Amino acid sequence: MDVEDTVFLLPGPVKMHPRVLRAMGMPAINHRSAAFQEVLGEVRELTKYLFQTSGRVAVLSGSGTAGLDAAVSGLLRREDPVLCLVNGKFSERFHDLCKVYAKPTPLEFEWGQPVDPAKVAAALEKGDYKAVTVCHNETSTGLTNPVKEIAAAARKRGAMMIVDGITSVGGIDVRLEWGIDALVMGSQKCVAAPPGLSAVAVSERAYAALHESSSFYTDLKAHIDGLEEDDTPFTPAVPLFFALREALRMLKEEGLEARIKRTTRLADATRAAVDEIDLGMFPRKGFESNTVSAIRYPAGVDDKKFRTILEEEHRTVVQGGQGHLKGKIFRIGHMGIVSIADLVAGFAGIEATLAKLGHRFDRGAGVAALTSFA
Amino acid sequence: MDVEDTVFLLPGPVKMHPRVLRAMGMPAINHRSAAFQEVLGEVRELTKYLFQTSGRVAVLSGSGTAGLDAAVSGLLRREDPVLCLVNGKFSERFHDLCKVYAKPTPLEFEWGQPVDPAKVAAALEKGDYKAVTVCHNETSTGLTNPVKEIAAAARKRGAMMIVDGITSVGGIDVRLEWGIDALVMGSQKCVAAPPGLSAVAVSERAYAALHESSSFYTDLKAHIDGLEEDDTPFTPAVPLFFALREALRMLKEEGLEARIKRTTRLADATRAAVDEIDLGMFPRKGFESNTVSAIRYPAGVDDKKFRTILEEEHRTVVQGGQGHLKGKIFRIGHMGIVSIADLVAGFAGIEATLAKLGHRFDRGAGVAALTSFA
User: Fold this and answer.
1) Cross-chain residue pair B15–A24, CB shorter than 8 Å
2) In chain A, what are the domains?
3) Per-residue pLDDT tens for A27-66?
4) Does this complex have an ipTM over 0.90?
5) Which one in A300, A317, A342, B4 has a CA-CA gap of 20 to 30 Å to B323?
6) On the CB side of B207, how many CA atoms lie within 13 Å of its CA?
């Protein structure tokens, strides 16, 4: 198995373009030089483009969780009640994070079911919450939560809205103007850069509310203020910034709207293929994610066997389920620069593997469905 | 000016070997796969070799400050009094960091003067400190603090010793067995990997004292426990781990003792050259760092002019001073894979630039001195 040459369909990290890989291989340069200031300035402007904002943004040398850490530790204080909407592994972790920096109350929904904005509104009426957290796109269940409606409910009660957009920003439309106060992305997802960087966009009122008493390395205010001056508060992960710049340039060349449209088309194609080969999607209909498809295993197909054969015989890498979904679903990422051709290559292997493991379906129908979307 | 092709003599990041650059350019791989577990396992063992310990270590996806953040937030609580030894820019920042997670009292020494262990002992007798922080190698002043003596004083009073070894680990001998409880390194310094990772080694008693209530992304216990199982608590900066592994392999091939010896020789050579061209070292004699030389400008030589000519005409990159040392000193890094040949190339430019700016000295004497160390 050549791990460097696979059909790479994880829900992140995702396939990187050779341009991005080449950009990363730069020799060491001075991160306090005019040359690197130029890089930071361009990264800042491209990050604003990505977030569809003219407001303030930060880019942190740390993965998506570092961005969430920065948002929560910068906006909330230990005594602040926060309502954490939980319907999957990553929103669960978001809740865990809030336990460190604030006083969270979870509002749980079944995994695979969306957060219900009406229930959020009801919970906000009962408690005096300073903020609400939600995972826009639950990577663990392949589900997109109705963040616009949730943000409207939070804004109505004056609560700050902190959104994990790690697998949505750049792939699914999401805007600060919906009433979001902090929105977090991760470099290795829809932007198709390497893992290790995260970015945060904040509203005006969130920026005004930032404090610096709960965290140092992930101090959001310091990162925002630094970047405004083409600088970083601490040594940045220089090679990752070069890679992110290149990946964001590619995103801008394609256009954010076109990228989101193409991502949607990849999701539609995937769902059509899934249907054709007699599999089912995991999340409730209408809430399936456009960046990550979570697919139920048919009866009798073992997760470990499936992914091993798929990888060893068809050099195709997909992800299994997490938590109690382990063994029940597999997940495919179709964000960033993933193409229909990648999905065709992957589904050819998926079909062959399912057939080998005894699943009965119309062989070739999945690939054909995908191809019709090319 | 070609920023990718210079004589690169910063006090970090430092020159990277092509092997390290190539290792970084890997395509995306699954960070929850057996292939990456193998990488993490090797990084863990090589990191223990680097720290000369069989105890526990963590590698964080974040620069040196993330490592310090993890050590302080994991070991101390808000009400814990900590004595912060301050004699430069980085120990000042270390003190700032402690303000977020504990109750620090600074014990200050003049920049360029070492921390006096007797004064530390006296301060520890007066206050009931839970911990002491020190910057082993003050990059800002090119000075190495007597950490062994300081750690002995702390241990005598039962205080935990937290050491910033960012520009010493791998270049200057420093050992947990001296009574150090947490020791932090940065990837872009003596190890000559790219910036963006940090590592922390802890004593047994420090590991037992770790709590998880002050930080999430930099949760030291989670990082240590994860790495013991070839895992990371959050998505790791995959390309940087590949690069760090290669850089640590190179360090082990050379041997830690040989690396430290060679670094010492580079420092001796630099100091000999500095002396020959009628410049002076900044720190007190006997405490000059072996990884970073801080050199006083002679009267009449302007920092900005000097570094601009050096860079533009001799494509040599050195660092200026920080804080109140701005304009007064320049700094050269000679750690990692820097060679006498690099220093010769750099000093040829330094000599030419100084002569152009009116400094009078024996032209060629610096380069000759360096060459005699080859």
Assistant:
1) no
2) 7-13+255-371 (3.90.1150.10), 18-254 (3.40.640.10)
3) 989 999 999 999 999 999 999 999 999 999 999 999 999 9
4) yes
5) B4
6) 15
